[in-house]
Amino acid sequence: MGELKPCPFCGSDRIIVGQCKADHILKKYHGGYFAGCLDCKITTSIYPVIKTKSPLLNEAKRQEAEQRAIDDWNTRTPKETHEKHTETHDNTPKERG
Questions:
Q1: Which of the residues 5, 25, 26, 79 has an alpha carbon 20 to 30 A from that of 86?
Q2: Of 38, 21, 35, 33, which is closest to residue 63 (Cα–Cα)?
């Protein structure tokens, strides 16, 4: 498993890679993986583990899904960029004169 960067939104280093075993995922896949911050609760998408008939291929698909969640987490918008974006994009309604 690859290294997880700190949360780009709150700065926490309490980041996990979790396995999703929800019924709607298990009907079609062998579960799925996501990465998320334990402090601010932001997560990546769930990357499903595609079902195959080969146990070796199933393990390769599991590792691939887990790595995709890690890669997705590590390429999130950095905290500084996120703060700068919210400062420059004020969504306050403007008065009409």
A1: 5
A2: 33
pLDDT per position in the chain (97 positions), as tens? Answer: 679 999 999 999 999 999 988 887 777 788 899 999 999 999 999 999 988 888 899 899 999 999 999 999 999 775 544 454 444 444 444 454 4
Query: What's the CA gap between 57 and 53, in Å, rounded?
Result: 8
